[in-house]
Amino acid sequence: xxxxxxxxxxxxxxxxxxxxxxxxxxxxxxxxxxxxxxxxxxxxxxxxxxxxxxxxxxxxxxxxxxxxxxxxxxxxxxxxxxxxxxxxxxxxxxxxxxxxxxxxxxxxxxxxxxxxxxxxxxxxxxxxxxxxxxxxxx
Length: 138
Hints:
Layout: H1 3-28, E1 47-48, H2 49-63, E2 70-71, E3 96-97, H3 98-112, E4 119-120, H4 122-126, H5 128-137
Antiparallel strand pairs: 1-4, 2-3
Helix pairs in contact: 2-3, 3-5
């Protein structure tokens, strides 16, 4: 190879590396699409546990139509299956209070956080564990 060809190859490799880095950074910072964007008030492209809990609290309050501070299986409107509801009700009173709801949010969040970075991106939210979490948030 001539000196000119070596320089050209170096320039091409550098351009490819820079484009790859920019693409990775752009992907990492891509905003969540609606309706997931509502879960990301800081618009960083991910949902943190605090953001998930805030959304879950709003959902709980919306579902608690009788305002007694608890949800029955019927009030959860599909967020829990009949078979999973008892696991979310450790005191076995046949209702879920806000603390039990938040415990489920945290458990499902951790299950969806496959890279263990403390946030969920669109890919993690699209996983089965992420979809399970979203039932408590949306």
